[in-house]
Amino acid sequence: MQTAIAPVTQQGKSGFGRWLSATSLAVLAAAMSAGPVPADPLVGKTRNTYGMPGVLDMPSAEMFSDGELGIGMTALEDGTTRATLTFQIAPHLVGAFRYSRVPGLMPVKGDDDLPTGAYTALYDRSFDIRWQMFEEGRYRPALAIGLNDFVGTGVYSSEYIVATKGIGDRLRVSAGLGWGRLGSNGSIGSIGTRPDYDYGSNGGQFNGKSWFRGDVAPFLGVSWAMNDRLTFKAEYSSDAYVKETELGDWDQKTAVNIGADYQLGAFTHMQLFLMHGDKIGFQISRAIDPHEPPFASGIEKAPLPVQPRPSISADRLGWSGDWSKDPTAQPAIQGALAESLSKDGQVLESMSLTATRAELRIRNMTYGAQPQAIGHAARVATRALPPSVETITITSVERGLAISSVTFHRRDLERLENTRALDILPTTTISAADAHDPAQVRTAGLYPRFRWGLTPYAEASIFDPDNPLRADFGAQLSAKYELAPGFVMSGLVRQKVVGNLDASTRVSDSVVQHVRSDLVEYQRNGDLALQYLTVSHYGQPMPNVFSRVTVGYLERMYGGVSGEVLWKPVDSRLALGLEANWVKQRDFDQHFGFQDYSTTTGHVSAYYDFGKGYVGEVHLGRYLAQDWGGTVELDREFENGWKVGAFATVTDMSSEEYGEGSFDKGIRLTIPVAWSTGKPSVNTLKTTIRPLQRDGGARLDIDGRLFDTVHGAQTGALYNEWGRFWR
User: Fold this and answer.
1) Which residue from 40, 267, 273, 627 puts its CA 20 to 30 A from 507's CA?
2) CB hemisphere CA count around 658 (13 angstroms)
3) How far apart are CA 28 and CA 634, in angstroms?
4) Secondary element (H or E) of residue 25
5) pLDDT, tens digit, for every residue of 57-92?
6) Are strands 664-672 and 684-689 parallel, antiparallel or unpaired?
7) Are strands 346-353 and 357-364 parallel, antiparallel or unpaired?
8) pLDDT tens-digit profile of 15-37?
9) Which strands sit side by side in the sheet containing 429-431, from one edge to the other?
């Protein structure tokens, strides 16, 4: 965040103010740790101008649908723009990240082309969060508490408590109290003293000392849905637009705002409004529900059905098990299984077979949900295995690692094929795989194995005040050569075709080693660029322990050696890891040369599966700029492969050394390709949104880290996605 505005307040009930500030932190912590409120939250139908559920400028106590993502753009007549990404983190907890342009609010420093005392546009990044404390009842309104721009000294810094009640199906009324920016018009009192912040500060720090302090003012809003598409809104605003009026083109004629929202489609809304009788505004927003793909049922081909076994009289040899004494039996059966699985988009890595038991070790190359791959493999097995084989084990293999084994009784597969996926789950056993089972016979002809692909790519740069959106488009060639299970060489080369990333003139002003802040130099010079070129080995030195060693050009900025071990029992919510790296910084052209800077970096890590798709991570150690500290991450994973997460890193690098933003933080999205195409795929689209790319708290960007490799095929993730077993 860049700056903040807050009117100077009078001294008030400072004791109560301190209590309320501390209580707000406790409330937010409780929201993350406590179970959901019993009833459904009051779902918001429209957004306010900040992209959150609300009326116009004012908030409401409403929530979005659980898991919903939203993107929106708001534009005001004076040139103010707000681009917002929202996420319904849990049924009663919603958050937002916003990038705003506010004209005339940033004091110009050190520019000879502008006069002293001049102001230019402020580009501000802000985070919001809201927790619904109570859901709506028959007579009771929903009640929520919220923090706007709560990390830093942002222009939108404010806090509020708000209640919302629906009256019938079409009318909703909201009323509340606001502090900070939302306490600047119509104050009815003051709680403590709220700091007046410096626009030129680095921002990015938790401004908890100002929460629920200073002038407090009431606000009121009403929305009425004339029909299913058109909603009219009106509100009494407690925001005086103090700095916009003082420094910008703003004339507050009234505290009343009016507007109308029109639903263009199932997920798209357009909104027009008049703010304070002075400025006309416009908003367009789009909701994305990860639960609802564009293709309702997918368009993948139907799997082979389970094949019931013949009667004993029809196949006495098969039922007797004497076939297992024939040395040619397993190669023939394994060859048939490998061929069938290959047609299904999977690889039969190895197999063990006795008269009564078979274990198939498969690598899933097609299905985004591992239970779907296991379900397909189990059905293929019933069609190729002799009838005496009653126990079927499917072991998931990734990067040469035997991650977990799912064991079925064949009679249960035959009996439950036409039931729900959850009906067969209690009959299965999920266990650790024996990494070094001597009975496993490797499928002939698998190694060495070479694969390559030519695909388009896009890379974007956002939040640059000189040009908020730049992008390159081109082609990338990837290749992978697997010498043996767990031993792989891989590389990626990119060639830009068109774009303007090289037009950026931004130069890093970092006062510490430029370990990340020279990203523009890599984008500017990397025309034909080697993104990475590595040799990796994955292993299982002991039960529940996985290892990785990677050597080469590890990512676009660094080459060197990276090693990692991970302890992760198959049924444990907890995983512990240790990573160590020695790296040297690469030349800007991303060919084969290096710069002078080298360093040793590494972390100890803990991962925890909270259930219901929530996974947390904590990493403690040394970062690329030789600063020491920790990173906290929280992701929500959906059954269909969507993942939304946030992270923050704090190190011993001071906020002055770090620069604008004060510490590293951001949001990341993982979108499965299958969600948008309807066709099964293990491919995903990943993006990380950082307000700023600085040098503090920077980690290596290494493909194939162990937790990401094993997590999807272990108990928690398998249970979470088991609904796709019969698909």
Assistant:
1) 627
2) 25
3) 15
4) helix 14-33
5) 999 999 999 999 999 999 999 889 999 999 999 999
6) antiparallel
7) antiparallel
8) 333 333 333 333 333 333 334 34
9) 429-431, 401-409, 391-398, 357-364, 346-353, 441-442
